[in-house]
Design goal:
Blueprint lengths: L9 E5 L5 E5 L4 E2 L6 H11 L3 H6 L7 E6 L5 H10 L6 E7 L3 H8 L1 H4 L6 H10 L1 E5 L2 E7 L14 E4 L13 H10 L7 E4 L4 H9 L3 E5 L8 E5 L13 H7 L18 H8 L8
Parallel strand pairs: 4-5, 4-8, 5-7, 8-9
Antiparallel strand pairs: 1-2, 2-3, 6-7, 9-11, 10-11
Helix pairs in contact: 1-3
Length: 284
Amino acid sequence: MLPVMSMPMFELVTLKGGAKSIRSLVHGETMHIGTDPVTEASELHIRQQRLAERAKVWKGSCPFAIWDVGLGPAANAIAAIEALRGTGAEAEIHSFEIDTAVLEFALRHSSELGYLEGWESAVEELLAEGRSELVPGVRWILHRGDFSRMAPAAAPPSSILFDPYSPARNPEMWNLDIFRRLLDCTRGEIPCLLTNYTRSTSARATMLLAGWFVGRGVPTGGKEETTIASNRRDLLEKPLETGWLSRVRSSTNSSPLRGRNYERNPISLEDYATLIAHPQFDGG
């Protein structure tokens, strides 16, 4: 009897420009589709959050904590470690992942992907031991499990690199409960920035209704803008303005996500009333 062959979960793809990335055959999505993994991680998360600068002047009682929500193939985490190297900052990178299969695939193809070259031993240690500290003062910690169902045991974040699969494929990671819990985890007194590749009206409305202040993020890849959020309005250079609310009102897909199903609906009158009362929109 022939052995049953398992179907592959991932494949390497060549992006426009020649860089390699990974496509999930299960979710039907290519990671970092608009640009290469290194460029997207640097533009979207590291430089936009001024990660190295903020970590260098951090004076909190606990380490400067970065939550890497959706570790995936570790491009964001590696970019963060490289940015922190040489700053002298004491920092922790907490990577959350339900399934490390994509990282294991990336590790097997480190030479083709490029960004993992030189970091193979760190990734191997992370996968085997759940933590790694190859850069002095920077601890990399892996939290395995479904983030949407866990209570993270990690230092309050100053930075959140939010990078799960899209709302259509992974709605439980984009709902009101997730963004409320993330905001609660910042504990208020710690300034925190959250960056993500989306520019979705629904996702932004969900973040706002969860209590975040939300702004227009930097362009990356083929996107003219992304999204940045914070627990403090003064940390945003380009907060969404009152004019953006007209888009919410007219959109057929502006309802905040609730529960674990992806539903595309216009925003309700009750949610819209709550949204326009958000302190972000005080004073026009």
